[in-house]
Amino acid sequence: MTRKAGILAALATASVAALTLGACSATPEGAPASGASDISSLVQANQKTDVATVQKNLGTPTAKSGVKLCYVTRTLANEFWGYERDGFEAEAKKLGVQFQTYAVNDESSITEQLDKAQSAMNQGCSAILASPISATALDSVFKAALAKGIPAIVLNDAQGTVPGVVYVGPDAETIGQTAADYIAKLLPGGGKIAQIEGDPGSSNALNRGKGFKEGIAKDTNLNLVASQTAKWDTNQAQTIANAMLTANPDIKAFYSQNDGMALGVQAAIDAKGLTGKVALVGTDGIPQAKKLISDGKYTATVSERPTTEGATGVDVALWMLAGKQVPAWVNVPAFVVDKQNVAQYLTGMP
To answer: Is 98 exposed, middle or buried (0-12, 13-18, 19+ CB in 10 A)?
Structure first.
């Protein structure tokens, strides 16, 4: 080979190598664009830490100018989600952050919620917070957000499996188990019990039900004779509870997977003249339920902390935007409210 030919061959080889390297370094579809923050790396996978510990470790967050947080919630006709929103908006205002809330009209409006979430992604949001109606309903939005370096945070329900999404809320299975343990203590001699379930597509309903049934199974004296969905609806719960009491007039206790449905159950118990004779344990800790507990018409509720969750979601978003690491699960544990402590919690929700 002549010297000139050798030089030409070397140049050709170098050109091919350069093209190959260029092809290998191309950004794949759906991956963060060049220079975008790998926000998922800030999330400590499989790490579950109590909210008080996280706050102590990371301190009060601050926000840069122009930050906007978006919260996609569920129907505000359910006052629980109103408190979740209130916590989110109050914390954003306190920290001087722009914010916007997107709510749906119905508790089962999965398609509407997805549309709202996609709309939020087009509104220049710095972080997406959401309370998904079902566990996977908003996964496509979460993935799109993370690919753009936008934090994605779930508040209270539907803890998902998308890596990099932070969950802020309680353990729903533990809530169900707590209700079962409470009923077991109320009925040391055992007896028949019934459960009113939430929407079957809801993660909270599925996990609370799982925890409750596992808790009841530990006590061989308790007999779960009926368990049926009322889809989070008060009127449906009243109708179903009435039918359960007609079929099993010796039911000794009800567990309702939320307080809204429990209000219907209480109405059915009252109509049968069984108030004070049939125990009723709900979930959430809404003010109306706590008023009935104070009046002796309702036994207990496993209270959640939606105002704390909403505020913590804001903090998590700002910590991540500041480059701080956060646990994949910020645990905001629930607790029992009954006649022993209800006077401390009559107004609002923690």
So the answer is: middle
* 39 Cβ contact list (under 8 Å, min separation 6): 146, 149, 150, 151, 164, 320
Residue 10 has pLDDT above 60, yes or no: no
Please tell me the pTM assigned to this model. Answer: 0.84
- Nearest by Cα to 282 from 324, 200, 342, 323: 342
* Cα four-point dihedral sign 53, 55, 59, 62: positive
Taking residues 301-317, report their average pLDDT: 98
Q: Tell me if domain 39-170+306-332 and domain 172-303 are identical in fold.
A: yes
CATH topology of domain 39-170+306-332: Rossmann fold (3.40.50)
Alpha-carbon distance values, 43 to 70, 203, 317, 327 (Å): 19, 22, 11, 6
Domain boundaries along the sequence of the chain: 39-170+306-332, 172-303
What is the topology classification, in CATH, of domain 172-303? Rossmann fold (3.40.50)
311 Cβ partners below 8 Å, 6+ apart?
Answer: 87, 88, 90, 91
